[in-house]
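Dissemination and training. As part of the outreach component of the grant, students in the summer workshop were shown how a complex can be specified as a set of sequence lines and then modelled as a single object. The example used during the hands-on session is reproduced here so that future cohorts can follow it. Participants entered these lines:
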Amino acid sequence: MKLTLKVWRQKGHNDKGSLVEYQAKDVSPDMSFLEMLDVVNEGLIKKGEDAIAFDSDCREGICGMCSLVINGKPHGPELGTATCQLHMRTFSDGDTIVVEPFRARAFPPVKDLAVDRSSFDRIMQAGGYVSVNTGNAPEANANLISHHTAEKAMDAAACIGCGACVAACPNASAMLFVAAKVSQYALLPQGQPERAKRAMAMREAMDDEGFGNCSNEYACEAACPKDIKVENIARLNREHLRAMICSDE
Amino acid sequence: MTLKLDGKVPEGPIEKKWDNHKFNLKLVNPANKRKYDILVVGTGLAGASAAASLAELGYNVKVFCIQDSPRRAHSIAAQGGINAAKNYPNDGDSVWRLFYDTVKGGDFRAREANVYRLAQVSASIIDQCVAQGVPFAREYGGTLSNRSFGGAQVSRTFYARGQTGQQLLLGAYSALMRQVGLGTVEMYPRREMLELVVEDGAARGIVCRDLTTGKVESYAGHAVLLCTGGYGNVFYLSTNAASCNVSATWRAHKHGALFANPCYTQIHPTCIPVSGDHQSKLTLMSESLRNDGRVWVPKKKGDKRSPETIPEDERDYYLERKYPSFGNLVPRDVASRNAKQMIDDGKGVGETGLSVYLDFSDAIKRLGLDKIKEKYGNLFDMYHHITAEDPYKVPMRIYPAVHYTMGGLWVDYNLMTTIPGLFCLGEANFSDHGANRLGASALMQGLSDGYFVLPYTVGDYIARTKLEKIDGSHSEFARSEAGVAELTARLLGVQGHRTVDWFHRRLGKIMWDDCGMSRTAVGLESAIGQIRELREEYWKDVKVAGSADDLNQSLEKAGRVADFFELGELMCLDALHRKESCGGHFREEYQTPDGEAKRDDQNYSYAAAWEFKGVGKEPELHKEPLTFENVHLAERNYA
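and obtained this result:
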């Protein structure tokens, strides 16, 4: 396959960026999208040019590090797939592909296609945990959790924190990310003692970081490589309301 | 002065060693803990759990990771599960049995006392993770589910779908984030440790490169914890993440930390086969798949028929045939080597002939499609994505790939290296798995080290050691910073013709061919020569583009590959010196008549710890004798 790439190049946080055109030749349909970029980069390095910077690590769809917007879609055209698991067989010979970073005020650019998502870590710091010190745990089977509840909690916990939901949202909202974590703990007995506080604190941290609010576009769910459902957002809203009205904290 | 290796294994019967030791360890007064700075490098299971636990105790902790967030460390990709001797299924498990299985699985090349402790604390790990809200799989009655795993005859593996590593890591990461929020941990993401700072013989700090700005920074502390994972990427293709590397431990090795058993690498039997030269990594399919999948090849050589048209009696379910009691659940090294044998015999399948079948059709018939989907759905989807073949309809094709490295920095019972104040945890150390790691034991070891071992032992070191206050302005830091800057300039300065990846691929091929699944003296000697040549060529002809003062991923990689050259040579040297086969180390010259690994306990029952003497110079071998007082040395037999 032969492809034309239009790639966002931006030297640093404060520099102006633009789309630069590259030709990708001898692309095999079995390559992943990132392997295709590796090949383009090898060509650039050989010519002495600065390689295209992009984040990736595990390359098996679980670390959440890869973060490209491909033809306008975070993680590209395939549903339920992270960029690293997107294969070139999804494209056709002669295609032009536009590659951009995840864009959001709360994800400032680092270089080229890499952005800073530490805002997600700060949201987690606000309440994305159960406060249990090492050594404090009761016997694991002391609390029974129904199979169904455990599965639902796992559905939410599957979030890889990539930020595609933010990149897809017209408001750059992090609701799906926050909702997944709040849901996981709200569903489980371990999360109950801090349930109200967590919902409030994580929502507030999200607002403080400059993420937008939710206007029910569902673009987040469509972009999510792990199929996290918007029903978690409904749960987050319920949790938040419950915390505001019923909580004695 | 010759270095004397002291494993510091406590006295007393094995069941009592850890309890006695904990009592004998000195404590740091709770009010004094905040006066001590502890540097933790790496945020996988070992690093994140240690950092959170130390901060909970009151220490000042600084944490460094190479990725943009600590949540992305490669522990996240572990799929199958975590072992613990809970004996919930009532099937005969116990601390002793987990200990026994692990020592035997490691082919009697691990330190008994460490392994016993690992089995002992395994149950607490599950308690801790459940309390954190890790959504382990549950039975309908609400209790925790278990499944069986390679190398064990009991069901002791806890799991969260095929994402157990992810869920355990997010548990540890959450605990870490809580401490960052409380102000007890300072987090430094996108930092790569490039130098260890040793002052008055003790580890007192690190020098890092801020990967975003290129700035070289110094951090001082009272103890340094390396939790930087394994070195499987020396093979270029492995199941490791792109940024997994040996540089932190290697540079500590160059400062005097001994590197033990570097040749013990684990080749995982169930990976997706290579599709072409462009391939940047191999993807593992959890070996939990071997619970329900049946491994087979056609009986006839070069049989190109599609699998569903090959009748039952023309298939060779070779693991079930050769190992009737363990069947498809034999340990990883045995499964890998057998796959290689089949392929070497010309019975491999798929377009390249470099794979064997892992067939689920019987399990789907027996359990139903829905049950298989629930158990392995995400793994099947992943396979489908990568290969464009639907494993619900056609058998998976699998091939072994480098997955885990049992070798690493030598540590004593306290997880301290030969440099005082430098500790090493998780996959980065050599301690618990001997010559072969059993499935679902890596997560257990990472969390055991971080949650339940190190928080005790680091306190003892601090309480017993007088450490002058130093900061990053100390002269040793300036010297280290200059060294780092010089190395960077040197890498950028070569301006040759070949990319870093070109060299890395070449190195990987040498390692895979001659220091991979099976090894020979001739092959290893030739590999050492080739690596030396390639390393020299590297420093003359590598081309690194870009600059030192911004995000430059090819520069990062160049430094890591430079270290892989030196490590690769040591691995071959270690493999060459060990004239026996054990676990993942299979020397063709030393095998039983049935083609199994043949140990030489008389001469090689020791951990080989190597001391660095200079690049290209012969390292010095130190031996830690391994004695087996509780598990009797026996031939490892899974038939």
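Chain A has a mean pLDDT of 96. Students were then asked to discuss how this feature might be tested experimentally.
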